[in-house]
Design brief:
5-stranded mixed sheet; 5 strands; 136 residues; alpha/beta
Length: 136
């Protein structure tokens, strides 16, 4: 699995794109790298996690809770409010993402599952009230 990060020009939105087959270990590596980047930048308040280019999603359902807890503990010091859009194709990955969101519903965190990037970007614009720009 490969993953890449891109920030918007104003460094307020972080886009994480995943490609290929995904395992639990891959998610742990991407979470650690993303956390480090968020700490370095310090201005990110909105996240897009895009899984549309994934092949398979080999993450056991019983590990979803631990992934959510790790994400919460790593992101807790990045700021009191985060809006996180997940772009997830239908099927198992969508179900796992829904389970993840149920475990991270914290005050100040808003999470949305989206069918495509356009929907995720539209939701983040509505959440932020700002004219956020996203470049491909």
């Amino acid at each position: 699995m490969a993953f890449s990060y891109r920030l918007t020009a104003d460094a307020r939105v972080l886009l994480t794109e995943y490609e290929g087959d995904i395992t639990s270990a891959d998610l742990q590596r991407s979470q650690a790298a993303r956390t480090e980047l968020l700490r370095e930048v310090g201005t990110v308040r909105w996240l897009i996690n895009d899984f549309t280019r994934c092949g398979s999603f080999d993450v056991p359902t019983d590990s979803v809770r631990s992934h959510a807890e790790v994400a919460h503990s790593r992101l807790a010091d990045t700021g009191p409010s985060l809006s996180i859009a997940f772009v997830v194709p239908p099927g198992l990955a969508h179900g796992l993402a829904r389970m993840w969101t149920a475990h991270v519903e914290e005050p100040g965190w808003r999470v949305q599952l989206c069918r495509d990037r356009a929907e995720a970007e539209q939701w983040l614009r509505a959440e932020s009230g700002l004219p956020l720009t996203f470049a491909d």
